[in-house]
Write a structure and sequence with these properties.
Layout lengths: L4 E6 L2 E3 L1 H13 L3 E6 L4 E4 L4 E3 L2 E2 L10 E4 L5 H5 L2 H12 L4 E4 L3 H6 L7 E2 L8 H7 L3 E2 L4 E4 L2 E4 L5 H12 L1
Parallel strand pairs: 1-3, 1-7, 2-4, 3-6, 7-8, 8-12, 9-10
Antiparallel strand pairs: 4-5, 11-12
Helix pairs in contact: 1-6
Length: about 170
């Protein structure tokens, strides 16, 4: 067992359930603790109306308590997570040189928060806008399911959630 705690961040409404559950399952299977944070308290509603308990709201996040912070995507991610509080959390992780990352549409938030400048990353690109967003923020788009660059892990969507979780575990070991 590894005594590490990972913060998974989900949108209060519209997070991608498979990305959350498969990523969480891989992390917990390795013996790490998962804490779930969101922009709303008590419970978050997935894209398919599945409710998930929330351990704390974003304003309560003390990054010193976490060994890694990872954003889960889904249709609600940009609306609920592309906010100042997330930018604060991500910047604190970057400054502390602790692992962080995102899956699906959420790597766009990493780019906008300027925490992956000069890095290689991936993400959901079905709208063909990711390359532009990344290049505007000095990020190199790599069209792969999962990309690890230093202590940053990014993935392209639900089908890569298991691999995303495994890479998170590897980077924390």
């Amino acid at each position: 067992m590894i005594d590490k705690t990972v913060l998974l961040v989900i949108a209060g409404e519209g997070f991608q359930v498979v990305e959350y559950s498969d990523t969480k399952k891989e992390i917990e299977a390795a013996g790490l603790t998962v804490v779930t944070a969101s922009d709303i308290a008590q419970s978050a509603k997935g894209h398919n109306d599945v409710m998930v308990p929330v351990d704390l709201v974003l304003e309560e996040v003390d990054t010193k308590k976490y060994d890694g912070v990872f954003l889960i995507g889904g249709p609600g991610a940009l609306k609920h997570l592309d906010i100042q509080e997330i930018h604060r959390i991500l910047n604190e992780m970057m400054i502390a040189q602790k692992p962080f990352g995102a899956i699906c549409i959420a790597p766009r938030i990493l780019a906008k928060a300027h925490v992956i400048v000069g890095k290689r990353a991936t993400g959901w690109n079905n709208d063909n806008e990711l390359e532009t967003i990344f290049s505007q923020n000095n990020v190199t788009y790599i069209p792969e399911p999962v990309v690890v660059d230093g202590n940053v892990v990014t993935a392209d969507g639900p089908s890569s959630a298991e691999a995303f979780g495994k890479e998170i575990v590897k980077i924390l070991q």
